[in-house]
Amino acid sequence: MASPVLPACCVAFAAVVMVYAQRHSQLDTHIQYERLGADVTMRCGAMDWDAAVTWTANGTDIDESHLNGSHLVLRNVNLTHSGQYACYEGSSWHLKYQTYLKVGTSPKEPVLMCRSNNYPKGFYCSWHLPTPTYIPNAFNITVMHGPRELICEKDAFPKNRCHIRYLQLFSTVKYKVTLTVTNALGRNSTTITFEEFAIVKPDPPENVVAKAVANNPRRLEVKWQNPSSWPDPESFPLKFFLRYRPLILDQWQHVELSDGTSHTITDAYAGKEYIIQVAAKDNDIGTWSDWSVAVHATPWTEEPKHLTTEAQVAGEGRTDRAPGLALLLLRVFSSSLLHKGQRVGSGARGRLRSPGSQPLGSNHLTPLLPQNQES
Amino acid sequence: MKEGGHWDKGRQVGGADLSVIDHPPQVEWQGLDRTISLDSVDGVPDATVERWEELTAAERLSANLQAYRVFQALLGEVLEKQRTHLTPLDTDFHASIQSMLLQVTALAYQLEELLALLRHSEPPWEAAGPEDRDHRSFFEMKLRGLKVLQELAHWTVRSVRDLHQVTKHSQGSNTAYGGQAQE
Domains in chain A, ordered, with CATH? Predict the structure, then answer.
């Protein structure tokens, strides 16, 4: 029977494991939250003040200048001070204390808003902090409708949002929503009150499409759909607001439409690329939605004869698809045509002028790229 | 971007033109701030309803009719108070209230007709409210006036929706009314 003598390598291995375990023994890991700009003093567990210790920050030894005896002193802490701090007894390297420092601030007053984009089903409230706290925050929301408290169900995504189902409709009793935000360094809250009708704001119309109308140089056909979040457009019809302008001008034309999800613009300037947007509103209550995504379209134009070759090479003569140089040439062409029209003069052209706008010829080449959606 | 008001001009409700009720809640109503609580005013029909989607046509028409009957009386009262005590010189204002009163009366009549057409029974006339009208202070009169107009405005929004539902359902199910629903 062989004696159970461990080979030397195993002994050495065991020793290493033991030392490691001692260095990183299962001490309670504290988390401590401190205010930005504060002075922080950490004690090395139960060690005496005059004990010899070494502190580390995220594994790196900390210079003795930060020590007051065995206490670690951090002055005017900022976010870079956040991390793991550990204290080891001088010679033995026993881990005596460790803590996780998180530097942050107490919450500022949160920003809260509520909106119904799915009337009459319900509404949602959403919130955020105007400045980050850098430490974890807990939010609590209460919704009161007169004496009654309603449950606001938290959405999975986005996180800072909850929704409520309407239990009553056509109520004049106001809703009162209070949001409290709390973290380790403090708390803050905000309250808003509103009426049922006032927060109704649909999502913008969807799938806005604008097309030229064949053989009609001044028309553009625009179609769109009700926002999919609006649950019952039949019983709660929406009305729409359409705005359009040529890219080269700043002033919008507006049309309000009380029904239907399409409209034909009949006064477009020939050959000019237009930007078009649509907004929606409940027929009777609430406010207008944000503008839809902008769409671009150019009215039908008869192919200019001497540019046919280029246009055909570029894209079968469809002027709104001709890329690059061909487009540039076409714009120069149509601009000069328009300019001639202006000189001949007609009352209708007067509409092109608005206070502060420049004559067409001078600046129409500037926006070669479509402008972004304007709010 | 223009903000929608609570209601728009030219709204037709059951054939009656309620555009005259295009009277937005006064930011200031006869010296009262708009945030003042009107909870103390009672006897004014409340448009609030639970499970609105589940109401039957009969229930909708009945509720609307009852409300507008009460509004007839209330508007009469408001008019009298304005003329006698609160704004005796503002004849334009009296004329608008008068006009509103006429519209509400016309609407109530049309609702009665509609109920009869759809072969529903009329709701009974409700007894008049508290009789201590003459013992109210000017402040209370003003509060009442504001409450009446606000609730009336709310009711007109509800009526548009209610009548739309009634129309929708009567178009869809002619046989539900004994096959005689006339458009």
Answer: 15-104 (2.60.40.10), 111-199 (2.60.40.10), 206-297 (2.60.40.10)
